[in-house]
Amino acid sequence: MADIAHLGILIVRRTLLCLPSLLASAALLLASVCAAVSGAGRAAAQDENPRSTGLDLSAAQLLCDPDVGRELQLTPAQTDELRGAYRTIEQPLWLVRDAARGEDGKKKRDLLATFVPRARDILQPAQRARLDQLTIRSFGWPVLATPEVSKPLGLSTEQLVQIEKIVRQMAAETISTAKEASDSAAREGRLVDLRRAEGESIQKLLSDAQRQKLAEMVGQPYDFSTVRPLTFAAPELEHTEGWFNSKPLKLSDVRGKVVAFHFWAFNCVNCVHNLPHYNAWHRKFASRGLIVIGMHTPETAAERDRSAVEAKIREHQI
Fold this sequence. Notes:
Layout: E1 11-13, H1 26-30, E2 35-37, H2 50-63, H3 66-71, H4 76-95, H5 103-122, H6 125-139, H7 147-153, H8 157-180, H9 184-205, H10 208-218, E3 230-232, E4 259-264, H11 269-285, E5 291-296, H12 306-315
Parallel strand pairs: 4-5
Antiparallel strand pairs: 1-2, 2-3
Helix pairs in contact: 2-5, 2-6, 4-5, 8-9
């Protein structure tokens, strides 16, 4: 049986920077940031049922990827329906994307459990079957520990214990390799060897019938290297009290452009040290379409003084 391709588990955030409300909290403003979540996700690993949640998150990512859409042979009407279905969970999912155990973790699971079945209903039977194969394949060997796969395979308790042991060992070695290997080529080679060893060790635990069933469940190979992270549209800026160096902006006016938000406060040492870098970005890339928005998020009463903010803007040549 061919090895299961493993989709990297990452969370990628787009950096943001703005100068809205002097009173709005940084936590609220952070909710306006675009983000991307891919694969099973670091947060999924912290949830009550991490791998099942990860499967739903992986399915959601695959359903929103245009290349996967072509693989599934989605019609334009299906693509539009899927986009509409995703929009209903987009903003609430963004707010709990890193949720650990607890109420937010439950919200994330509930959102995904709402979207994935609704999205599957949009697909034809053959499309649903291929999506299931891609979802399982994308998750890598840890997928065997999920009920969605272990039950159809008829894995015994002893098999599950041994599989879990191998997965944990390989995860630890992967982390160690990522930390210790300084040469990228050597590191990638070592990671490929680890994944191969993981697959060979797990396959030895399976019966011929189980290996055949698993081969049917994962289907034909697929190149996941082009799969895009799951993205979230930035909500409109709200609670802005004033703008400097610009007329008031709406994010709807700059959709499709690269926007960097810098969250800062003029008495924050680290913020001040970072200002030259954002100024340099503006000088170098503004002509190519980059929009840099400084978002002042005051922490003290003095930082809430509008005239003081304006003076610091002049001082730092923002």
